Amino acid sequence: MQRDQVKTRFFPGLRKPESHSQVTPGEEDALQAMLEAERRGRFSAQPILLLLLNGLFAAANALSGTFVGVYLWKVKSDFTMIGIFTLCIHLTMALTFWLAGKWVKEANKMHALRLGVAVSAAFYLLVLVLGPKAVSYIWLLGGAQGLASGFFWLSFNVVYFEVTGPKTRDRFNGWAGLLGSTAGIIAPWLSGFIIVHMPGTTGYRTIFSVSLGIFLIGVIVSFFLRNRQVQRNYAWSYPVTCLKQPGTPWRRVTAALVAQGFREGVFGFVIGLLVYISTADEMKLGNFALITSAVSFVSYWLAGRLLKPSLRKWGMLAGVLAVTLVVAPFFWQVSYVTLIIFGIGTALFMPLFTIPMTSSVFDLIGSDDESAERRVELIVMRELALNTGRVLGTLLFVAVTFWTKAPLFFTTLLFVIGCSPLFSWWYMRHQFAGTARAA
């Protein structure tokens, strides 16, 4: 296969001559190596570096992020307060994605990536400085976390799209999940051990400080990633324009992403908090993360190796049915035992949901030259859809917990939110059928 054919086959949008008018010889060689690796279904150096950065980001967040909600809860035991904190994160994140799109596309996306890591470090520094007063500055902390996540994940996803292709995307997502699971096995358990063996809040201050240091290492790693220029201006209204097009698959995909975010927005913070409330022991929370992450490690490894484009449709259906059913034990009792059942079941089957979902959306972004040239706008649209779902889910959680504290209403709320992945599969099933035919 000729070089230009390889570009066209695996990386749509790179064929146009003007797209490489500013490429240096070193960048051209790196691109050639990446294309050759993609043709063989292997990783070049750039995807490996991106996985390393993702692993560091996951480790820092696993070390401290698991316990931020617990830290706030110990100061003020209020579900509504924690929900508002999470809501501030998602709203700021969505706004950051939309505004930062112009910077990422027309300037240097690596600067945005580094800023995201740096602001993550600043977030934990802010928690250290505020101490118990943090509950009075929920909006500030939520805004800082949302700003950091917005900058990091927008840039990360654009780079991810650029350094992977259809042959390596499922494997990359499998490895990313594998690294996240490894971080989840070690970091939260270590954090719990440090917290319970240090007096007062010294343990919290220690783990927050270590996370800060890991984020700084991530900034250094990011300097080895190459920035690839995009030759078009950022279109602020492109998501709306895209959704208005008759017959566009993005309408169904956007609805699926909203449903995915609906679950993520709540379960991302409430499960760890429930484990702590049920046990009043940070070490138990660390053990919970260790057990579930160990299961997730194996399941991501298997899913990354076995899931092929032709299997995405039914693999995802099996995954969403399973992660919905594991919420059911909460109707019996919300306890450490039922939370462990939920955690293991989710860890075992969630890769069947997330890997096909992520890979298929990015395959759609790279389906033709026009979409690939608009990759930043489409990634912004993807993230806006996810955050819309997260905001809606969190708003529902805040409203219900503010209105009533009755256990039955709380459990029913978790089950309703936990069913949302079923809608993701329903909207994506036609997209999977197209992917299978192409494969």
Automatic annotation (TrEMBL):
Q: Name the chain's protein.
A: MFS transporter
Keywords assigned: Membrane, Transmembrane, Transmembrane helix
Q: Which organism is it from?
A: Paenibacillus chartarius
Name the CDD domains on file: MFS
For this protein, the record's Pfam families field holds: MFS_1
Could you tell me which InterPro entries the record lists for this protein? MFS, MFS_trans_sf, Sugar_transport-like
Q: Taking the first listed entry, what is the main subcellular location of this protein, grouped into a coarse class?
A: membrane
Localization, per the record, is: Cell membrane
